[in-house]
Amino acid sequence: MAIEFQCKQCGKSYRVTDEKSGWRVKCKACSALIRIPVPAKDDLEFLEVSEEEDLEEYEDISYLVDRKKSSPFETQQNASPESDGTGKWYRIGGGTLVVLLLVGLGLYLTLPAGQEVEQVAESDQPALEPPVKSEPEAAPAGPILSKPDEPKSVKPSPVTSKPVEEPKPMVPRPVAPKQAEPKLAKSMPVKPKPVAPKPAESKPAKPEPAAMPVVKATSKKPEAPAVVKAEPVEEIVTQETMSPERYHKVEDSLSKIMNAFHNYSQTHKGLVPDPKIYKHYYDDQGRLKVSWRVHLLPFLEEELLYQRFKLDEAWDSPINQAAAKYMPAIYRSPETPAASNQTRFRGFEDPESVAQPATAGRARGRGTNSVASIFTVGSRGRLRDVIDGISNTVMLVETGPDQAVEWTKPGELDLASVSKSIGKTPLGIPTAFIDGRIRLLKSSIDDETWRSVIHPADRAKVDLDKLLLKVRRPVKATTPENNLVQLKKISFGILRFINSHRRFPPATEHVIKGKELLSWRVHLLPSLGAHTLHAQFKLDEPWDSPHNIKLLELMPDVYECEGVTQPGLTSIMKFVGPGTPFEVDKPGPPYSRIPDGRKYTILYVKAGPDKAVPWTKPEDLTLDLENPHQSLGTIKGDHFQAGIADGTVREIKTDISAEKLKNLINHQDGQVVGDF
């Protein structure tokens, strides 16, 4: 009979006769010790071999192992296979005995030490003698006590010196601190009067008076009021609206964003991607995987950043997270750090918990409008569904700092609790309406009123004038940078005009009997927010009629130009005539009829002061094809400002070539100008 087994360490296989079962052997390959297994009786018939000479032999070290480890557990295990159970109990009993010995040894060592401490207080030598006498009683304890006897050569010096001198000081020492305490108590009563005020120090629980002195100090001390006034809370209380400088920065950003929205809408027929066409841009819940802010990047001149995003991946995917670090400045509020990627410009989302108003109507015969806000799950935000008027419907707001989010993260403010979602905005809420107009609304507006101005088709009539906050008029701009802001307002007004009339101004109804009676600048007034001034004009009378000529002196600030000193005149003009998008006494071209591309076509310019005309007069610049620079008049500086057909405003060098300038003005010559 043979036994097959392997070395557990190196895996080498062996076969031996069953006579060697239970032996300890050494592996030839790795010299590891192996115990030859004992096979069960049922397995013996499978281990039969015909040639015992094939059995592999190796060094037998069982006799060495048995000698080195001659324990009752080893002998019982090697004796026979049937004795394994008995050997197991021997091992358990032996282990228990060792544990008991160790426990007894520990008790022996600790108890004498405790007695020694107690006896040292009385005398040193008697305390050491009894343990010496107890040594013969426990043989194993003898050598253990002999070890502490060795350090006695070291301890005697401190022990003999301490016990001899300490017993006397030790007795007074515990008493001394007790006597020292009364001495301290006596030293304290020496000052009983300062101790008496200390109960009055319960009044130093005058953190309450600590708050009172601050109020009193405002009237008594001149320094305290300065501290109180420096707190932002006091400024919020005294200042009804935000500073004009801050408001106009936010207004500029929101205007650019709304301009991009309208350009996006002209291209994609919606303010956000169509869920039916771009299904891979939306998640299972019907929300965009990345925010609308990312989709607007190509219309904000951020094409390179746009290409770094994966629109079909979640906003927090590794690729999108890496690109999110580069938030455009247009999404940043004035107080937001330059390194931050948090934005406060957000819209409103229609949750399922908000019921449709009972006044909700039909969107121009296209079925019941189920959209309670522009950013509604499953909707692309069509402008034609805004039946309440794009000038009366809110699209974006600037929230408080506590409601800022990462600019690529989808999801908008909760329409169910608008005021809470907007956050803390004590100085007013800059709000962008769908027509692109920016207004500063009050922070105290209730949720029901908010939902009425956010819903695009609830037919609710809201008096917006009662919701507005006035912003102090800023100083007139004289720098080129501020002039650009002025022209941007005009460009945004033109885009709003296009949303209403589907063409550049003037509209078809503004040309009466083949004649322009008033300038396009007058017809643009409603899109610039000047409804009251526009209502005073008689649109069926010419600009110089007895009635309309009186309104010449009421020219809005947006048309004022530096260098033009005569009241009522402006140099903001468009090009008319052959080779331009506009013709005299004809409506403006449709927004889609710019073959060379709106991005590469000049719409209007701020000409030289010598070209100024009455702002209500339908008169503009006639393009000189031979010398287009002459059409601009006398320009001071090396740049002139121009409004581009896509709604942007550019500064163009005055030394631009005549050919390139002519190509920029001509909208259908097939010559697309790249950089200018």
Spell out the blueprint of helices and strands:
Elements: E1 2-6, E2 13-17, E3 24-26, E4 33-35, H1 62-68, H2 72-79, H3 84-120, H4 125-134, H5 141-149, H6 156-165, H7 167-170, H8 172-187, H9 192-195, H10 197-200, H11 207-220, H12 223-230, H13 232-238, H14 244-268, H15 292-295, H16 303-307, H17 318-323, E5 342-343, E6 345-346, E7 348-349, E8 394-398, E9 405-406, E10 413-414, H18 418-422, E11 429-433, E12 438-441, H19 447-454, H20 480-501, E13 511-512, E14 515-516, H21 520-523, H22 531-535, E15 569-570, E16 572-576, E17 602-606, E18 613-614, E19 621-622, H23 628-632, E20 639-644, E21 649-653, H24 658-665
Parallel strand pairs: 7-10, 16-19
Antiparallel strand pairs: 1-2, 3-4, 5-9, 6-8, 8-11, 11-12, 13-14, 15-18, 16-17, 17-20, 20-21
Helix pairs in contact: 2-3, 3-4, 11-12, 14-20
What does this molecule look like?
The chain is of the alpha+beta class and 676 residues long. Helices cover 35% and strands 11% of the residues. The chain has 24 helices and 21 strands. Strands 19-16-17-20-21 form a five-stranded mixed β-sheet, covered by helices on one side. A four-stranded antiparallel β-sheet has the order 6-8-11-12, covered by helices on one side. α3 (84-120) packs antiparallel against α4 (125-134). The longest helix has 37 residues, at 84-120. The protein is elongated and about 130 Å long.
